Amino acid sequence: MFEWMAWTLPVAVFFGCIALMLVGMTVWEIRSPTTLRKGWLPIATTRGDRLFIGLLLAAYVNLVFVGLGENMAAWFGLEAPPSVWISFVVSMVLLALLMRKG
User: Fold this and answer.
1) Between the CA atoms of 94, 97, 99 and 102, what dihedral angle is there, to the nearest 10 degrees?
2) Is 47 within 8 Å of 34 (Cβ atoms)?
3) What is the Cα Rg of the chain in Å?
4) CA angle 4, 8, 10 (to 5 degrees)
5) For 18-70, how does the pLDDT look when each residue is reduced to its tens digit (9 = 90+)?
6) Residue 51: exposed, middle, or buried by beta-carbon count in 10 A (0-12, 13-18, 19+)?
7) What is the rounded distance in angstroms from the CA atom of residue 44 to the CA atom of residue 38?
8) Is the sign of the CA dihedral 91, 92, 94, 98 positive or negative?
9) 68-78: b or e for each residue (b if 16 or more CB lie within 10 Å)?
10) How does DSSP classify residue 82?
11) Are 82 and 72 a contacting pair, CB within 8 Å?
12) What band does 77 get if pLDDT is binned at 50, 70 and 90?
């Protein structure tokens, strides 16, 4: 059924983190209901809104990194494309920043 999908360790970790975030946010919402707040995003958001926007941002960061990986190897004179773990860490840092300050 999933033969078309390249289930590598980074892909599994990425989706595992998303599942854990959804469970954590559900528990957090039950224990402490959220309210709208205004951060540096141009709209008032809830925790769930910021998580959704952050997950979209993380997906785009990873897609851009994978798409430009071979070009980055040529630009920076690397022997192989950079590891996708770099984009994973960058996307999770951006997600945490958005959740905290957004």
Assistant:
1) -110
2) yes
3) 16
4) 130
5) 899 899 999 999 999 988 999 898 899 999 899 999 989 988 998 888 888 88
6) buried
7) 4
8) positive
9) ebeeeeeeeee
10) P
11) yes
12) confident
* First-to-last C-alpha distance (Å) of the chain: 38
- DSSP bridge partners of 37: 45
Tell me, yes or no, if the pTM score tops 0.70.
yes
Q: How deeply is 21 buried, as exposed, middle or buried, from its count of CB atoms within 10 A (0-12, 13-18, 19+)?
A: middle
Helix then strand then coil, % of the chain, to nearest 5:
70, 0, 30
Q: What are the pLDDT digits (tens) for 4-31?
A: 767 778 778 878 888 998 999 999 999 9
